[in-house]
């Protein structure tokens, strides 16, 4: 996800194009089981356990002002079932994160922010803390940093009442240690909501670190909302190359995850809420809805048609609720309504 007003094209585009040839329609087995996690630090878990609907809409809420509409959590459109608070901050302990409420969003106090979290939860929504983003500097690459990550996330869930965590690390991650960290979070909070927002290059094959992480926590993973933008052209599951910003790009790349081991309920389509929200890859809400229909119903497809339908597909995600609000909530109103009407 991007903090800059104009967005950015990923610096790994060249690598993406080179690696695209590795993608195929083949189904690969999940990676080797991760190392066992150390016991989580003792604490009192939060009482709230969120129930994410079968078809869900995820939106990132900006804890900063970059030219999009500044919102409090209470202002986020009710179409969003999962609200990812962007972003956690790194600390001086490797792997550990914290959260600093930005005064720019207008809260009088941290307690007011916590009250908004509770209000959203009372209305049936989940609020998770996103780790990463374009400028995220969190690194979980050994056992100690994995434990630091888990301990800090567990502590923030208890302190703020977050329902879980979103992984949006855009500078690489270790499947072994991120899986270990997330399993330690799950051990402390069995109802944790875990979402992920990898870039397209990170999900081209079940052998990539992001994909292996998703498969390594498949038993409690909520959704992978891949970023179908800031990408350039990529291979689809049929081996053909598709350009971003098209219905075929959305459906053929989702197919890689759907045939590579993830359950349909764990796959969502991540798109920018407006042209200003990303460097490239924006699609009109009607294109997102066509892709959803293609994947779930076998209708409204482009040149690529999946070999089967996936009526249990989780839904869609957008960066961000703030950019959506700046555009009159077009994503929430159009895509949100469509997701909630899926079979």
From TrEMBL:
Gene Ontology molecular function: chitin binding; endochitinase activity
Biological process annotations from GO: carbohydrate metabolic process
Xref: CDD domains: GH18_chitinase_D-like (cd02871)
Keywords, sorted A to Z: Glycosidase, Hydrolase, Signal
Enzyme Commission code(s) on record: 3.2.1.14
Class of the enzyme per the UniProt entry, highest EC level: hydrolase
Gene3D superfamilies xrefs: Glycosidases (3.20.20.80)
Domain GH18: start-end pairs: 55-343
Cleavable signal peptide: 1-29
Domain of life: Bacteria
InterPro entries: Chitinase_II/V-like_cat (IPR011583), GH (IPR017853), Glyco_hydro18_cat (IPR001223), Glyco_hydro_18_chit_AS (IPR001579), Glycosyl_Hydrlase18_Chitinase (IPR050542)
SMART domains hit by this protein: Glyco_18 (SM00636)
UniProt cross-references to Pfam families, sorted A to Z: Glyco_hydro_18
Family statement drawn from the similarity comment of this UniProt entry: Belongs to the glycosyl hydrolase 18 family.
Name of this protein: chitinase
Protein's organism: Streptomyces kasugaensis
């Amino acid at each position: 996800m991007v903090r800059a007003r104009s967005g950015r094209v990923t610096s790994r585009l060249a690598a993406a194009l080179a690696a695209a040839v590795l993608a195929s329609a083949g189904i690969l087995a999940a990676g080797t089981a991760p190392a066992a996690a150390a016991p989580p630090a003792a604490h009192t878990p939060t009482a709230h356990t969120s129930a994410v609907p079968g078809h869900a809409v995820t939106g990132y809420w900006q804890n900063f002002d970059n030219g999009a509409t500044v919102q409090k959590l209470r202002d986020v459109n009710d179409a969003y079932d999962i609200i990812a608070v962007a972003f956690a901050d790194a600390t001086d302990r490797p792997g550990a994160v914290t959260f600093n409420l930005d005064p720019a969003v207008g809260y009088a106090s941290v307690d007011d922010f916590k009250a908004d979290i509770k209000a959203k939860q009372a209305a049936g929504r989940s609020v998770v803390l996103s780790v990463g983003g374009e400028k995220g500097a969190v690194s979980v690459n050994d056992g100690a940093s994995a434990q630091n990550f888990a301990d800090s996330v567990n502590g923030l869930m208890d302190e703020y009442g977050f329902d879980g965590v979103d992984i949006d690390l855009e500078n690489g991650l270790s499947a072994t240690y991120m899986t270990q960290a997330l399993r330690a979070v799950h051990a402390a909070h069995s109802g944790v909501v875990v979402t992920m927002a990898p870039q397209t290059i990170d999900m081209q094959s079940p052998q990539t670190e992001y994909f292996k992480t998703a498969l390594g926590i498949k038993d409690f993973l909520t959704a992978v909302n891949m970023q179908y933008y800031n990408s350039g052209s990529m291979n689809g599951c049929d081996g053909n190359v598709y350009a971003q910003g098209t219905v075929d790009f959305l459906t053929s790349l989702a197919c890689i995850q759907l045939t590579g081991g993830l359950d349909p309920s764990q796959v969502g389509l991540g798109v920018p809420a407006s042209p200003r929200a990303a460097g490239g890859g924006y699609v009109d809400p009607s294109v997102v809805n066509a892709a959803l229909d293609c994947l779930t119903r076998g209708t409204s497809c482009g040149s690529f048609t999946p070999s089967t339908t996936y009526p249990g597909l989780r839904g869609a995600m957008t960066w961000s609720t703030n950019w959506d609000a700046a555009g009159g909530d077009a994503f929430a109103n159009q895509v949100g309504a469509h997701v909630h009407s899926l079979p």
